[in-house]
Amino acid sequence: MAAHTIYYGTIIHSVSIEQVDIIQNGVLVVDATGIIVHVERDVADIKEFLDKQPYRDVEIHSLGAEQFLMPGFVDTHAHAPQYMFAGSGMDCQLLDWLEKYVFPCESAFESTDHALEAYQKVVARFLSNGTTTCSWFATIHLEACKKLVDIVHQLGQRAFVGKVNMDQNAPEFYIESTQSSLKDTRAFIEYVQSKETTLITPVVTPRFAITCSSALMNGLSQLAKEYRVPIQTHLCENHDEIDFTCELFKSKDYTSVYDNHHLLNERSYMAHCVHMSDEEIDLLAQRKTGVAHCANSNFSLHSGVCDVRRFLAKGIKVGLGTDVAGGFSPSMLDAIRSTFFASKTQKIIHRDNGKNNDYVPLKTNELLFLATLGGAQVLGLQDQIGNFEKGKSFDALWVDLEGGSIDLMGGESMDQKLEKFLFNGNDQNLKHVYVQGGKVSSRK
Ligand SMILES: [Zn+2]
Fold first, then answer.
1. Are residues 170 and 266 in the same domain?
2. Is 50 found in the same domain as 84?
3. Of the residues 356, 379, 402, which one is the last residue of a structural domain?
4. Using 50, 70 and 90 to split pLDDT, how confident is the model at 90?
5. I need a labelling partner for 381 at 20 to 30 A (CA). Which of 104, 231, 316, 326 fits?
6. Quick one: 229 and 334 in the same domain?
7. Residues 162, 205, 320, CA angle at the centre, nearest 5°?
8. How far is the CA of 136 from the centre of ligand 1 (A)?
9. Is 307 in the same domain as 408?
10. How far is the CA of 388 from the centre of ligand 1 (A)?
11. How far is the centre of ligand 1, averaged over its atoms, from the C-alpha of 306 (Å)?
């Protein structure tokens, strides 16, 4: 293996939410540990460049004219076991769907053989779709959760993995006691932390307030503090869920329930956040808690249309989530497109309600940011991944505009080519997928 790997060609990444940087004739130098050590633009001749640089033992990959590198996708919210039935039950709303599809499916993961088989498929599928980092919910079963960690490790994905917690308002066949939930979560965190990898992070994962007693939520926030690990859960997804939660905890709103159990902090991130008062959004901003926007799922379970602009306006970190299987697609390209539609729907709602005709839907540069660097910020990984700044890890997609589902008609600008990929591309446009400099998936 060469000491340095050099990529030469067009490089596209988000510098900020406003700005996408398109680097023509770019050079990225990646060291043997997968770290980007050099970024150069406008290099007319790679040989001349190398003559002036100290890199001697190199492997050079030149990208073709219709190819470019971009950062890998960050999926901030997905349920690994639910991939089993992705696309089913789309006639339900959240609480019925949980009863009818989710709980029976997840309870089967008591079998580690079943877990092994299912988790191999889902993690491989996410990687082939370019999801280099994923925040996973598993199930309540400690042994099956460990299997998910083993598979993620083996297949080379960067991931946050959570053992789900639920000690109330769940069916008899899929519930745990408060004590065993806390004990298994501790064992799970220690298992992940004992693995020889920096790519996998354990994340404390109460399913949502309805299925968690106060004692459990308090215990989980203690564990997150003790082991310095992040927290993920669901928040304000659907009206019935919100009403039930407020009634259950005698609370004025849903967000306060988590806050009262010390679950909101700068390492927490909440999926959905569709129906939030201004006061609740201010609380998230105050706690520096992030949001995983799951547009496909919000449409599919007809939960609502989340207005991402409200969070961005308050400086809240926002990333995208497929929410497999509330969302039916494992692809972050679909998450981008669903987010686009949700934002356009907000524009229509604002206009038709006469509220604000100046509402600006999300633009392409913002969509790219949310799917990469925005997601990295939500997970607290912004210094490691999300774009190609020097010093970050090489988590990347080698995009090939030919060979997938795109037709180039000639004369497209680079901006248009990026748009063609984001709106018309598919997994067959991904020649290679890299995590920490290593190849984790290639087009078949
Ligand atoms: Zn979810």
1. yes
2. no
3. 379
4. confident
5. 326
6. yes
7. 80
8. 9
9. no
10. 29
11. 15
Longest dimension (CA), the chain: 70
Does this model's pTM top 0.85? My answer is yes
Residue 47 has phi, psi (to 5 degrees) of: -65, -45
Q: Which of 335, 339, 330, 441 is nearest to 79 (CA)?
A: 330
Q: Are residue 81 and residue 205 in the same domain, yes or no?
A: yes
The confidence score (pLDDT) of residue 360 equals 96
Angstrom CA distances, 172 to 99, 101, 104, 114, 292, stand at: 12, 15, 11, 20, 30
CA of 111 to the centre of ligand 1 (A): 22
Q: Where are the extended beta strands (E) located within 41-145? A: 58-62, 67-71, 73-79, 131-137
**Domain boundary residue among 361, 379, 397?**
379
pLDDT at 195 over 90: yes
Helix 414-424 vs helix 332-352: angle between axes, to the nearest 10 degrees?
90
Question: Once rounded to an integer, what is the mean pLDDT over residues 356-383?
Answer: 96
Q: Cα 283 vs. chain centroid, distance in angstroms?
A: 23
Tokens of residue 195, six digits: 């693995």
**Same domain flag for 169 and 235:** yes
Which residues form the domain of 22? Answer: 4-71+387-442
Whether residues 98 and 24 fall in one domain: no
Q: Which residues contact 47 (CB under 8 A, 6 or more apart)?
A: none
User: DSSP of 204-256, one letter per residue?
Assistant: BEE--GGG--HHHHHHHHHHHHHHT--EEEEES--HHHHHHHHHHTT-SSHHH
Compute, in angstroms, the gap from residue 417 CA to the centroid of ligand 1: 32
- Rounded mean pLDDT, 103-114: 97
Q: Which residue has the tokens 């010390």?
A: 262
Q: Of 336, 278, 326, 256, whose CA–CA distance to 298 is shortest?
A: 326
Interval between CA 77 and ligand 1 midpoint (Å): 6
Task: Reply yes or no on whether the pLDDT at 356 is more than 80.
Answer: no
Query: Distance from the CA of 65 to the center of ligand 1, in angstroms?
Result: 39
Domain count of the chain?
2
Query: pLDDT per residue over 371-416, tens digit each?
Result: 999 999 999 999 999 999 999 999 999 999 998 999 999 999 999 9
Q: 418 falls in which pLDDT band (50, 70, 90)? A: very high
Average pLDDT of the residues of the chain: 97
CA 380–ligand 1 middle distance (angstroms): 19
The CATH number given to whatever domain includes residue 133 is 3.20.20.140
pLDDT at 1 (0 to 100): 82
Are residues 31 and 117 both part of a single domain? Answer: no
Q: Tell me, what CATH number does 399's domain have?
A: 2.30.40.10
